[in-house]
Structures are given as C-alpha cells and as structure tokens.
C-alpha cells in the first residue's frame, strides 16, 4: 500500500509517456488519468447514469455505452456544458486514481495527470505529496507533436495554445525532468528522482 504519491504532469508531447515507462520499469505503479477517465464512464457506472440524466439518453449508444463522439460534439462549443460534464466526471476520476494509488504495491505511486494545471492543480488533488513536471521547450514539443500525430504546424500550434503555459506548469512543480535532448538522457534523471522518492516515501 502506497502512502506516498507523486503527481506526474507535462504539456502535450513533452515526453510524459517516455518518463512514465521508465518509472514503471523500476516497479512503480502508475495510475493514469486518461485511463481513469474512460473507466469511470463504463456501462453501469454512476457517472454514466448522471451523464444520461443531465445530457439525455441519446448520449448513449444502443448497447448502453457512452457515445463519446456525440458528447464531445455537444460540449465542444459550449463551456457551460463542458463544465457540467466535468462536474460529473472529475470527482469520479480523482476518487478512482486516489484509490489506485493507495492500493499500489510499490513503495510510492505515480499519478499521471497530464492536465493537472488545467484541472485545478494541487487544490483539486490535495493527496499528491509532490508534483513532477516533464518539461520541454515549446519548439521541441511542437516538433514532436507534429511527428508523433502526423499533424500540420497550425494544428500543433492550436493544441499547445489550448493548454496551460510552460510557466504555469513550472509554478506547480517540485521536481522537473528536462526532456530536451536524447531519450537516453531521461534514464539518469528518472533514477535520481526514484532514489529521492524512495527516501521520501519511507519518511
Ligand atoms: P506525452 O506523453 O507527454 O504526450 P510522449 O512521451 O508521447 O509525450 O512523447 C512525444 C513524442 O516525442 C513521442 O513520439 C516520443 O517518442 C518522442 N520523444 C519523447 N522524448 C523524446 C526525446 N528526448 N527525443 C526524441 N523524441 C522524443
């Protein structure tokens, strides 16, 4: 059971997955917000019932599962509707991730929350003991994003602009992994942090 939890965050294509993989290879359990976001709206879940109540039963497909495309289109242009949806899903996501971290069979756990800054930071996640930022210059993020997702420069610009700024993320961080070089450079940084977190976890 892990009592010590490190939140991992970073901008799009900063290298969060690369860093997370390395912690996992060291035996650290990772709770992933993107996976949790899917898990809390599976058929039969309380959050899915609330979504059908609030947004209408036609947000469900014939098999009772969530019509993601329809819901996404519905909230796309309407911030109030987006807020209403997040009021249902975010508490469920936070609860599930906290539970997964508490039950983790590693000395500490990682909670990977890409949009931590955007969803309320530490106030929304008071059970995080520490925040680790994966940081890369915007130009590097931009180039990686275009290459990874096969998108053009304008769309990559938009996706980066839709997120918090690098400065906002840095303001939230206790620790920073700098990912502006070769992926191999990540390993030593991860091992150093791992040693630090092991020490902090035993308190
Ligand atoms: P995130 O999970 O933050 O969105 P990824 O870990 O998927 O980012 O990294 C974005 C892309 O950049 C991926 O295709 C990944 O393989 C690549 N990448 C990550 N770090 C490096 C690096 N140091 N050098 C070159 N490519 C990298």
From TrEMBL:
Q: Which gene encodes it?
A: coaE
Pfam families documented for this protein = CoaE
This chain belongs to which protein, by name? Dephospho-CoA kinase
GO terms for biological process, alphabetical: coenzyme A biosynthetic process
Keywords assigned by UniProt, alphabetized: ATP-binding, Coenzyme A biosynthesis, Cytoplasm, Kinase, Nucleotide-binding, Transferase
Q: Name one GO cellular component term.
A: cytoplasm
Q: Could you tell me which InterPro entries the record lists for this protein?
A: Depp_CoAkinase, P-loop_NTPase
What protein family is recorded? Belongs to the CoaE family.
Binding-site residues for ATP, renumbered to this chain: 13-18
Localisation per UniProt entry = Cytoplasm
Question: What is this enzyme's catalytic activity, as reactions?
Answer: 3'-dephospho-CoA + ATP = ADP + CoA + H(+)
Task: Name the pathway.
Answer: Cofactor biosynthesis; coenzyme A biosynthesis; CoA from (R)-pantothenate: step 5/5
């Amino acid at each position: 059971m892990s009592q010590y939890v490190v939140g991992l965050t970073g901008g799009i294509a900063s290298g969060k997955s690369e860093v997370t993989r390395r912690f996992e290879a060291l035996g650290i359990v990772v709770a992933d917000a993107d996976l949790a976001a899917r898990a809390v709206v599976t058929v039969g879940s309380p959050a899915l019932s609330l979504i059908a109540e609030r947004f209408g039963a036609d947000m469900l497909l014939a098999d009772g599962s969530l019509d993601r495309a329809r819901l996404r289109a519905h909230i796309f242009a309407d911030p109030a509707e987006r807020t209403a949806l997040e009021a249902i899903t975010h508490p469920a996501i936070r609860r599930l991730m906290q539970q997964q971290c508490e039950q983790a069979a590693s000395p500490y756990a990682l909670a990977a929350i890409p949009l931590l800054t955007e969803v309320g930071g530490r106030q929304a996640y008071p059970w995080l003991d520490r925040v680790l930022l994966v940081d890369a210059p915007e130009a590097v993020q931009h180039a990686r994003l275009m290459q990874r997702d096969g998108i053009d420069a304008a769309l990559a610009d938009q996706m980066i602009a839709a997120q918090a700024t690098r400065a906002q993320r840095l303001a939230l961080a206790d620790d920073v992994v700098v990912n502006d070089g070769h992926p191999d450079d990540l390993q030593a940084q991860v091992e150093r942090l791992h040693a630090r977190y092991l020490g902090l976890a035993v308190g």
